[in-house]
Amino acid sequence: MQQRKLRVRAKIRRVNLPRLSVFRSGKQIYAQIIEPKTGNILASASSLKLKKTAAIKKTKLAESVGEAIAAAAKPKKIIKVVFDRGGFRYHGRVKALAEAARKGGLKF
């Protein structure tokens, strides 16, 4: 997974746009929009910040995080980003987060 992460980041560095970085643990999912030159975090969202019920699935929670990161980016006028999946496969929760962020208005 480390090699995949490095390969993805090498391609992202060529583009000078904010990156939407995703981290997924066993229980939670996190998303950050990071400014390319300084590395400052412009917006963030995570499943920890969202109110969740016991019956909600992790994929639905990832969709909520995607919508939340898109909503957090709107006031800062961030529309175009580069998606950094961080070595995780574009599948399941990562894919659900990305599609929800697109639906929320982010373009990548």
From TrEMBL:
Coiled-coil features, chain-numbered ranges: none
Keywords, comma-separated and alphabetical: Ribonucleoprotein, Ribosomal protein, RNA-binding, rRNA-binding
GO cellular component: cytosolic large ribosomal subunit
One of the GO BP terms on file: translation
UniProt key word Protein transport: no
InterPro entries cross-referenced by the UniProt entry: Ribosomal_L18 (IPR057268), Ribosomal_uL18_bac-type (IPR004389), Ribosomal_uL18_bac/plant/anim (IPR005484)
Function summary: This is one of the proteins that bind and probably mediate the attachment of the 5S RNA into the large ribosomal subunit, where it forms part of the central protuberance.
Family affiliation: Belongs to the universal ribosomal protein uL18 family.
Oligomeric form and interacting partners: Part of the 50S ribosomal subunit; part of the 5S rRNA/L5/L18/L25 subcomplex. Contacts the 5S and 23S rRNAs.
PANTHER family to which the protein is assigned, alphabetical: 39S RIBOSOMAL PROTEIN L18, MITOCHONDRIAL, LARGE RIBOSOMAL SUBUNIT PROTEIN UL18M
Protein name: Large ribosomal subunit protein uL18
Gene: rplR
